[in-house]
Amino acid sequence: MAELPPFNNVPPHSEVAPIGQEIPTQLESPLEKATTSRWQGVRSLFAWILRWAMLGAGVGGVWFLGVLVAQFFPAPNPQPPLQEVVVRRTNRFVQKVRRLPSWWAGDSTRPRGVAAPYLQTE
Fold it and tell me: Domains of the chain: which residue ranges?
């Protein structure tokens, strides 16, 4: 990933030399040296996190908008949408995992022994 420019850079000066005059041999740099701040790394990390968060929110918002549009204007295609297929397969997978034996699922609340027969007293 490319390095982000520091936040405290000054924009370059746009000075045009007048026509007919010679350019001086010693020109000062129009750019001032960027000073490194101890907060520069934190700022670039914050900017990186903020950009990813905005990308995630944008993608999620557009996906939700697409779901809303699909509710009002369904496609004539007889196949279910990919989102519905994924949700159904995920639900089936979770149900199969829950049906596994108790030692596999990690259910340790059930007693391991055989229950005593119920005695009826009068």
Answer: 40-103
Residues of the chain with pLDDT under 70: 1-2, 5-7, 9-35, 101-122
The torsion region of residue 20 among left (phi > 0), alpha (psi -120 to 50) and beta comes to: left
Alpha-carbon distances of 110 from 96, 99, 115, 117, 122, rounded to whole Å = 20, 15, 11, 17, 30
Six-digit token string for 83: 């989102």
Q: What are phi and psi of 31, to 5 degrees?
A: -95, 135
Structure tokens at 70: 């699909």
Q: Give the C-alpha distances (Å, rounded to integers) separating 89 from 9, 61, 95, 97, 107.
A: 52, 24, 10, 12, 24
State the amino acid at position 35 in one-letter form: T
For the stretch 53-67, pLDDT in tens is 999 999 999 999 999
